[in-house]
Amino acid sequence: MKKIKKSLLPLFIASFMMLVLSCKENNGFNEPVSADKTRPGIITNVKVDNFNGGAYITYDLPNSDNLLYVLARYRINDKTVRETKASYYKDTIVVEGFAKSKEYDVTLYTVSRANVMSDPIEIKVHPLTPVYEYVQPSFKMGEDFGGINIQGLNSLNKEIGLILLAKNKITGEMEVQDQFFTKDATVNYAVRGFVNEPRDFGLYVTDKWGNISDTLTSTLTPLYEELVDKSKFSVYNLTTDSPIGFGWVLPNLWNGNTGGDGWHTASGGHPPFVASFGIGKTYKLSRFVIWERTGEYTYGLGNPKDFSLWGSNKDRPGEAQLPLLAPEGTQLGDWINLGNYHFPDPPSGNPPGSTNSADETFVKAGVSFNVPFNAPSVKFLRIAVRTTWGNSDAAHIIELSVYGRPE
């Protein structure tokens, strides 16, 4: 792998920069008018405690009745000067967003209610390695089905942005393909939609102040995947499957109609709600897409909330009473747990029962779930629903699509 200069990268991170376009932070200080033009005293006994990308500055406030806040002014990189403020109720101000672990000048003022500034106090801070640089060496790219897998550690649990680039074969330029923002300590996700041929990819880390790491590049070949042919699916009834209810039939689960009838268990059941079926031949699965019931049922009633996918590559896999939950990779007879899943919470942030049109649109589009790369190849599947959004005594799914590589 090699690195390319960050100056050549397009800065398509507008959504991450909205917080800092003004390069100032006023923290809600609406300064009242005062007729007292007396210059406030300066802060004293200044101490610095550096952290990754910033520093805490503590001090003693002057004995000034007209004091409103303390102001810090500092440059975080070659382009940006920031200002942060701390109320006169506090004895600490935070300066952050520095691009490098080196010495920076910070100018501190006290400001009165009449907007009169004190004489400046010049101090120096030396931030520890900024978060975006601290985490960058842990990230790596790898080939995945239909795309690229990105893994790494964000051990400080600070917000970072991961920007994936790919070379445009016509222009020869590296162009942004995906932007992923997270505070999670462990990062593992895939960007799909690439053809099965070699291509140059790049990855860099950014933060909410617009700082950008060096870019890691590699030539990768996304793995081939295809939509498993639903016309080859078949019902595989097991006595431990949940009874079907309401006149629905299991083949509705793969009839291609994402807005009609689907799989629906009978009322009065108990989790896990289970359905078993064959997919025609052996596949190394990459992912699957679920369409839940929408309208009045969105994030409610029998729509799956937590569920597992089990698989088998036997010609006629036997019975197995599936548990509510088992670790990934658990083997029960002819069946193995391929993964445990949680249907994403409503994107709006609203609780179930108060969802909005954005949540409805999200569910109607279908939600994709990855099958772990180390999962075995299978030709039979079982879905086992542990909980539903409405804590119902039945479960329902409208449509299921499965992707993978035929064996």
Automatic annotation (TrEMBL):
Residues 22-127 form the DUF4959 domain. Residues 255-404 form the DUF5000 domain. PROSITE patterns: PROKAR_LIPOPROTEIN. This is DUF4959 domain-containing protein. Residues 1-22 form the signal peptide. InterPro entries: DUF4959, DUF5000, DUF5126, Galactose-bd-like_sf. It comes from Pararcticibacter amylolyticus. It holds the Pfam family DUF4959. Residues 128-231 form the DUF5126 domain. Keywords: Signal.
